[in-house]
C-alpha cells in the first residue's frame, strides 16, 4: 500500500541543530511527530516545548496541521526521491507569568494622575 511507505525525516531547530534523521510511516500524524520531537528535545537547550501546541512544523514553507498525516502534508515536487526531508521546528516562546503581569499593571496604575476636574 502506497500510504504505508517509510519516510525519512529530520527536524531542524532554530539554532541550526537537528533531531534525527529517523524513518516514519507516512500514515503517522503531525501530532505524533510533535510528540516525538518533545521526547527527543535536547536536554541542554533552554525553553523547550512543553506540549504539542508549543510547536509548529514547517515543510516547504507550509505550516503542517496536527490532524493530517505525513502523506497528506508532503509536497512531492520539493523532495528528492529517497532523500531526507527536513522539517523546520518553531517553538512558541513561553507565556509570561500572569502574576508578574498583574504586578506591572498595578505599578503603572499607581503612578497615574489623581487630578479631578471641577
Automatic annotation (TrEMBL):
Report the InterPro entries cross-referenced here: MUB, Ubiquitin-like_dom, Ubiquitin-like_domsf, UBL3-like, UBL3-like_ubiquitin_dom
Q: What is its main location?
A: membrane
| Membrane topology of this protein | Lipid-anchor
Any GO CC annotation of this UniProt entry = plasma membrane
List localization entries.
Cell membrane
**Which purpose does this protein serve, as stated in its record?**
May serve as docking site to facilitate the association of other proteins to the plasma membrane.
What's this protein's name? Answer: Membrane-anchored ubiquitin-fold protein
This protein's species is Sesamum alatum
